[in-house]
């Protein structure tokens, strides 16, 4: 079966830069990831699995400037077994020579590859927040490193505009051409990247005194981080442009902040519901009293019934965690009843014994009868 065009697989144009390719890849790999499609049938899973592999294959080629250059010129056959290496098995190492000789025709380095804008790598960090803050939402200020274009050289790396000069070795073309004599081929032209300017066509006489020729400077910026109400443990928040610096004019990478929620002494969370174990006196149960239940948003009232049993789970609707994607959807507070018997003095015990002696314990008598 013929392969689909890699650009069509990722849904990008042939002129797309690396940031567009990365963005498309992230969306598609998340869409077709096996863990995201567990609810599909076996036949559908196989289709999704193939699409997932197809996206990964396309990204592997198009994210690599050298492989992309070969693909643009030769298509899928550039990566088929035997292509461009037919002599390598019988003439040890000849494929490397062949690549050097014909570098100007797509097998080796090129000026476009050297100058291709490349986005910087993403960085990661993590922060811990309190359980209640994760339910109610919070915000805080924190300082982060950020790479900015050097203001002195405007990102050129040169100390002054006059320090940017045309490369004398390649005359500004970024490449050099040499006539090479190869047995069996005669004299051929070998076009390669100029080593003096690394294919840029220009050289810098004096590097920028501020950034030392790096084209960027490290700054510290204080950012206000908004934590949405209902955020879950393991959620990532993206700070655009706070990653590693790009090269050749490429954009900075991003900073992904992993949110870790601290464990609470009493609360636990399951999806958008909050669970709590509530100590309840048997007196409150017998009296069918209204008891107070702590929640992240304040105290809630709960009416007890004399039919309640220890271990029962009662629900307070809408007192759970909001869904961070849709705050109008709110979970419930699940109250786990844990009965206890309060302490009584001797006089109180005597009165209770008198009362309990008149109680017909049908539950116990039935249990003993069935035992």
From TrEMBL:
<keyword id="KW-0235">DNA replication</keyword>
<feature type="domain" description="J">
    <location>
        <begin position="5"/>
        <end position="75"/>
    </location>
</feature>
<dbReference type="GO" id="GO:0031072">
    <property type="term" value="F:heat shock protein binding"/>
</dbReference>
<dbReference type="GO" id="GO:0051082">
    <property type="term" value="F:unfolded protein binding"/>
</dbReference>
<dbReference type="InterPro" id="IPR002939">
    <property type="entry name" value="DnaJ_C"/>
</dbReference>
<dbReference type="Pfam" id="PF00226">
    <property type="entry name" value="DnaJ"/>
</dbReference>
<dbReference type="InterPro" id="IPR008971">
    <property type="entry name" value="HSP40/DnaJ_pept-bd"/>
</dbReference>
<feature type="binding site">
    <location>
        <position position="167"/>
    </location>
    <ligand>
        <name>Zn(2+) 2</name>
    </ligand>
</feature>
<dbReference type="GO" id="GO:0008270">
    <property type="term" value="F:zinc ion binding"/>
</dbReference>
<keyword id="KW-0346">Stress response</keyword>
<keyword id="KW-0479">Metal-binding</keyword>
<dbReference type="GO" id="GO:0042026">
    <property type="term" value="P:protein refolding"/>
</dbReference>
<dbReference type="InterPro" id="IPR001305">
    <property type="entry name" value="HSP_DnaJ_Cys-rich_dom"/>
</dbReference>
<feature type="binding site">
    <location>
        <position position="150"/>
    </location>
    <ligand>
        <name>Zn(2+) 1</name>
    </ligand>
</feature>
<dbReference type="InterPro" id="IPR036869">
    <property type="entry name" value="J_dom_sf"/>
</dbReference>
<dbReference type="InterPro" id="IPR001623">
    <property type="entry name" value="DnaJ_domain"/>
</dbReference>
<comment type="function">
    <text>Participates actively in the response to hyperosmotic and heat shock by preventing the aggregation of stress-denatured proteins and by disaggregating proteins, also in an autonomous, DnaK-independent fashion. Unfolded proteins bind initially to DnaJ; upon interaction with the DnaJ-bound protein, DnaK hydrolyzes its bound ATP, resulting in the formation of a stable complex. GrpE releases ADP from DnaK; ATP binding to DnaK triggers the release of the substrate protein, thus completing the reaction cycle.</text>
</comment>
<dbReference type="GO" id="GO:0005737">
    <property type="term" value="C:cytoplasm"/>
</dbReference>
<feature type="zinc finger region" description="CR-type">
    <location>
        <begin position="137"/>
        <end position="220"/>
    </location>
</feature>
<comment type="subunit">
    <text>Homodimer.</text>
</comment>
<protein>
    <recommendedName>
        <fullName>Chaperone protein DnaJ</fullName>
    </recommendedName>
</protein>
<feature type="binding site">
    <location>
        <position position="208"/>
    </location>
    <ligand>
        <name>Zn(2+) 1</name>
    </ligand>
</feature>
<feature type="domain" description="CR-type">
    <location>
        <begin position="137"/>
        <end position="220"/>
    </location>
</feature>
<feature type="binding site">
    <location>
        <position position="197"/>
    </location>
    <ligand>
        <name>Zn(2+) 2</name>
    </ligand>
</feature>
<keyword id="KW-0963">Cytoplasm</keyword>
<dbReference type="Pfam" id="PF01556">
    <property type="entry name" value="DnaJ_C"/>
</dbReference>
<comment type="similarity">
    <text>Belongs to the DnaJ family.</text>
</comment>
<feature type="binding site">
    <location>
        <position position="153"/>
    </location>
    <ligand>
        <name>Zn(2+) 1</name>
    </ligand>
</feature>
<keyword id="KW-0143">Chaperone</keyword>
<keyword id="KW-0863">Zinc-finger</keyword>
<dbReference type="GO" id="GO:0009408">
    <property type="term" value="P:response to heat"/>
</dbReference>
<dbReference type="InterPro" id="IPR012724">
    <property type="entry name" value="DnaJ"/>
</dbReference>
<dbReference type="GO" id="GO:0006260">
    <property type="term" value="P:DNA replication"/>
</dbReference>
<keyword id="KW-0862">Zinc</keyword>
<dbReference type="GO" id="GO:0005524">
    <property type="term" value="F:ATP binding"/>
</dbReference>
<dbReference type="InterPro" id="IPR018253">
    <property type="entry name" value="DnaJ_domain_CS"/>
</dbReference>
<feature type="binding site">
    <location>
        <position position="194"/>
    </location>
    <ligand>
        <name>Zn(2+) 2</name>
    </ligand>
</feature>
<keyword id="KW-0677">Repeat</keyword>
<dbReference type="Pfam" id="PF00684">
    <property type="entry name" value="DnaJ_CXXCXGXG"/>
</dbReference>
<feature type="binding site">
    <location>
        <position position="170"/>
    </location>
    <ligand>
        <name>Zn(2+) 2</name>
    </ligand>
</feature>
<feature type="binding site">
    <location>
        <position position="211"/>
    </location>
    <ligand>
        <name>Zn(2+) 1</name>
    </ligand>
</feature>
<dbReference type="InterPro" id="IPR036410">
    <property type="entry name" value="HSP_DnaJ_Cys-rich_dom_sf"/>
</dbReference>
């Amino acid at each position: 079966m013929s392969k689909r065009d890699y650009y069509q697989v990722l849904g990008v144009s042939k002129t797309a830069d690396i940031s567009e390719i990365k963005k498309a890849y992230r969306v598609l790999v998340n869409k077709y990831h096996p863990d995201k499609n567990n609810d599909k049938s076996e036949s559908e899973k196989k289709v999704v699995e193939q699409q997932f592999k197809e996206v990964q294959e396309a990204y592997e080629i198009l994210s690599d400037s050298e492989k992309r250059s070969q693909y643009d010129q030769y298509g899928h056959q550039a990566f088929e077994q035997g292509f461009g290496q037919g002599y390598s098995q019988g003439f040890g190492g000849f494929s490397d020579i062949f690549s050097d000789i014909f570098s100007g025709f797509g097998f080796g380095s090129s000026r476009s590859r050297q100058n291709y804008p490349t986005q910087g790598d993403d960085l990661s960090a993590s922060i811990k927040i309190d359980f209640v803050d994760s339910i109610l939402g919070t915000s805080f200020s924190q300082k982060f490193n950020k790479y900015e274009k050097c203001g002195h050289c405007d990102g050129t790396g040169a100390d002054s505009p006059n320090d940017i000069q045309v490369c004398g070795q390649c005359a500004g073309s970024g490449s050099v051409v040499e006539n090479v004599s190869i047995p069996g081929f005669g004299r051929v032209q070998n076009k390669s990247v100029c080593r003096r300017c690394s294919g840029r066509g220009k050289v810098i006489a004096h590097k920028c005194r501020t950034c030392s020729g790096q084209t960027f400077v490290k700054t510290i910026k204080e950012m206000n981080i908004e934590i949405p109400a209902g955020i879950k443990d393991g959620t990532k928040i993206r700070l655009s442009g706070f990653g590693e610096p790009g090269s050749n004019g490429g954009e900075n990478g991003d900073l992904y902040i992993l949110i870790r929620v601290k464990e609470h002494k009493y609360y636990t969370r399951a999806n958008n519901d909050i669970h709590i174990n509530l100590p309840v006196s048997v007196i409150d149960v017998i009296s069918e009293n209204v008891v107070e239940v702590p929640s992240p948003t304040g105290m809630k009232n709960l009416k007890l019934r004399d039919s309640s049993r220890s271990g029962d789970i009662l629900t307070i609707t809408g007192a759970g965690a909001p869904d961070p994607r849709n705050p109008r959807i709110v979970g419930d507070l699940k109250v786990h009843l844990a009965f206890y018997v309060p302490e009584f003095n001797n006089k109180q015990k005597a009165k209770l014994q008198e009362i309990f002696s008149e109680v017909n314990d049908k539950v116990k008598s039935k249990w003993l009868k069935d035992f």
